[in-house]
Amino acid sequence: MDVTSTYKFARISARKARDVAREIQGLPVSDALDILNFTPRKGADLFSKTMKAALADAENNFELAVDGLFVKSAVVGEGPTFKRFKARARGSAAAIRKRTSHITVVLSDDVVAGGKEEKPASKKGKKAVPKKAAPKKAAAKKESAKAAPAKSETSGGGRVDEKLGMVYDSAPAEVDDLKEINGVGPKLEEKLNSIGVYQFKQVADWTEANIAEFDELLSFKGRIERDEWISKATSLHEEKHGK
Fold this sequence. Notes:
With about 240 residues, the chain is α+β, with helices and mostly antiparallel strands. About 40% of the residues lie in helices and about 20% in strands. The protein is built from nine helices and six strands; from the N terminus they run E-H-H-H-E-E-H-E-E-E-H-H-H-H-H. A three-stranded antiparallel β-sheet has the order 1-3-2. Helix 2 (about 30-35) runs antiparallel to helix 3.
């Protein structure tokens, strides 16, 4: 997913800003910010502000993991030019052009930063060879399937998973509005539903092992405990059922 941030009418010429843009193109966000922090140029400060705005949008509006983002595009376009004049000899005047530019930064988590794209096979004499399925991977999948713990079914139509706790394969008859939990937005609610979480009671019954598994699946990294999901879900469940 791409997240775009634009700094309009930046008081810097496009030529000077493009020198900084070339340095951060294609880098992970952390590396790009380090370069900008230690670059003593005005363009570096402007790019840093633009990138931090994009990071805030990615984390708060799109629920993306900041560690997995990289600079997909850093583009500088020319803006309007302010014309000023300075008095010179013999009653003449010299023009002073104060240039502006539009800075656009695009962050993405679609591919790994710095990854090389595969070149298509040449048309002359070389044919693309289809990849064969690796037998080792197939054997590893079979072993993991055998080693997977059995999942017990419950009377309510759900099942108990040792890693995820109580989950549903499909939406149950009674579904709670998970957005009432602090820090859960519409996108996070969709992700939780896709994993099988639909009710406050499920979140309230999470153990430390369940929290660790959901941290990894949803890329939260401690956010569940920081936002106190379990205590909030417990109070919402008790308030709804009058317990």
